[in-house]
Amino acid sequence: MVVACIALTIALGGTSYAAVSALVPANTVGTEQLVDNAVTSAKVRDFSLRLWDFKAGQLPRGPAGPAGPPGVIAELIPHQSSVTVPANRADGSYRTRSIHVMCASGEHAVAGGTFWSSDKDDEPLVTVTSRPLVKDGKTVGWRARGGSDLNGDRIFTVQVLCAK
Q1: Domain spans of the chain?
Q2: pLDDT per residue as tens digits for the range 40-79
Q3: Pairing status of strand 76-85 against strand 125-135
Q4: What span, in angstroms and rounded, lies between the C-alpha atoms of 116 and 101?
Q5: Between 57 and 161, where is the model more confident?
Q6: CB-CB contact of 101 with 81 (8 Å)
Q7: What's the CA gap between 11 and 4, in Å, rounded?
Q8: Is the pLDDT of residue 14 over 60?
Q9: Is the pTM of this model over 0.90?
Q10: How far apart are CA 44 and CA 61, in angstroms?
């Protein structure tokens, strides 16, 4: 049975290839043959194509623009604050604490983040949220919430990097 199936596949495959080759010679299928399914410029939404939709070298580069002004490295000042996230409750419920740290007057926040007093892989310590604090359209600090599901207290620290 297996030999018969293989023979049938080879026989039909060769016939199909020969039929298609005879009916459709090379380089003869174009827009006219694909009228309903052809992808044309009119069917592509403006600005929907991205760089990765094209092969390397397919898109021409425009002329280089003028050089921008030299960058100035501001004085960067780190600030941090910590809070104790208590052990989970007897019923096993998850405990979280929120904390924020502010830049000093005349500074603005450029980055922020968090860390825990423990860095063990098997401890389920989570930074629930971490985001900049914005006041009157200016970043002035960093706020974060940390969560622990452990039987012991852990220290959660938020940091902000401020520039003058």
Answers
A1: 80-163
A2: 778 888 888 888 888 888 888 899 999 998 887 788 999 9
A3: unpaired
A4: 15
A5: 161
A6: yes
A7: 10
A8: no
A9: no
A10: 22
